[in-house]
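Model: You mentioned two targets. I'll fold them one after the other.
Researcher: Yes, keep them separate.
Model: Target one:
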Amino acid sequence: MSNKRDTTAVSPEHARFLSSVKKADRRVTFFRYFILIAALILWELSARMGWIDPFIMSSPSQVMSTVARLYNGNELFHHIGITLYETVVGFILGTILGTLIAILLWWSKSLARILDPYLVVLNALPKIALGPILIVWFGAGVKSIIIMGLLISLVVTVMTVLAGFNEITGEKQLLMRTLGATKLQILTMVVLPASVPTIMSALKISVGMSWVGVIVGEYLVSRAGLGYLIVYGSQVFKLDLVMASIVILCVLAAAMYYAVAFFEKRLIRWRGHA
């Protein structure tokens, strides 16, 4: 008879706990889809029954019809591709630059103190106000739109990541200094690994900020993209086009957010096995 213990065995209490967690997850998922489906049904019913003006509020059936028309006219993926490209590029550049600036400010406390009031002002400043200036500086094109998306996410990333760096307890850093570690070693071995949750939170925030910046930029200068469709639809009173563009934006923004969340889970799992 083997004396080895079965390490894969699960106690009855733990099994009940896992079962309750799974039930709670299924319940949450059910109500998420229930609310979405109920809202769509109520929206469609309200438009058909005349409770709301379908010309102003549109309806799910009109939205789907508009999306199908854009697809059949080979316009759907053209506009989606342009907006998605601008958003992804602005998001990646904003995240990289924001993290590098946060590292620089953590590295130099004096520089952080000097730039702190400017960061506060930039964070409070409505970035939309910079739109006309960016158009003059970089031209009325894709470059201005990408920079708008970058700027809106940049300051948020800097302040969020820097706050995470500063929350790392000084005991570990003091121990590393006592052992003769350099500042670069402290950064790479203590600060950055401990700040991964903060950096991932900053990424999730930056996703939404990048979409806001790009859509605002497309409002101002674009001749293609989902932001352009929203402006064009409102100008010619094609509000079904406006609502269809907004619905597509919601789907794309949610997909990008969940992509970041999926990357976060994989990163946490990889760190757990490392």
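Model: Target two:
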Amino acid sequence: MAHFTRGNAMLRIKELVKRYGDEKAVLKNLNLEVPGESVVSIIGASGAGKSTLLRCINRLVEPSSGSIELNGTELTNLEGKSLRLARRRIGMVFQGFNLIDRLTVMENVQSGRLGYLPAWRAMTRKYPQEDIDRAFHLMERVGIAHYANKRADELSGGERQRVGVVRALMQEPEILLADEPTASLDPKTSKQIMELLRALASELHLPVLINIHNVNEAKEYTQRIVGMRFGRIIFDGEPVDLDNDAMDEIYAGVPAEERGGAESSTHLREVAAR
């Protein structure tokens, strides 16, 4: 298995274990480092532990043991206010968008600032002008500024996902997590969202960790691929290194047509050389 070794990683995970009750561990002594400005995809069959890993990072799921460190802050032992403050630093983009349909695009976007605002501002929706300006800037960047006053339930899937991305960025996060961000989108829109995430990582000097089912998208839009099987990392390398042998190890027993597609490493090297 190829391994990346990097200094000054922003996210460091060491010996992470997650088990539910007395059941077999879902994550098994997992180790991972993700540095700034990198776009890393996580692939694997259903049940590999991909979503659980992301949810452990932002503590939506409680780790059983191990260490998760973001920019020198240990996340696993935080509680109460300290945990809420830490969560502000972790942006999350969801497969199902997680928007409030009856609210406008601007109101959904501003919900990313709730951790920074006094309760009265949040309840009365009296957002500071600097937050409104930042929201418009980000919405313009992703092409939805003209929908600012439109209700969320009037948007297409791709537009809704863009709202989700901007909401996460309004937190001014130190890392962006994306859980199957293209799973419910058509191929053209999926491409646009993946291109957007890759560009934002560079523009905002932000590490992006994407749990993705489409292997071809992982190869095309991310710099590094982490392959998981039964709660362990069994591949960690560049897209060109994800050959048929590695795919067979990651997706053992899964039919080829259900693996999200996989072009040969030879073809990818040819593309990279153009």
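Researcher: Noted. Anything on target two?
Model: Residues 1-9, 263-274 have pLDDT under 50 and may be disordered.
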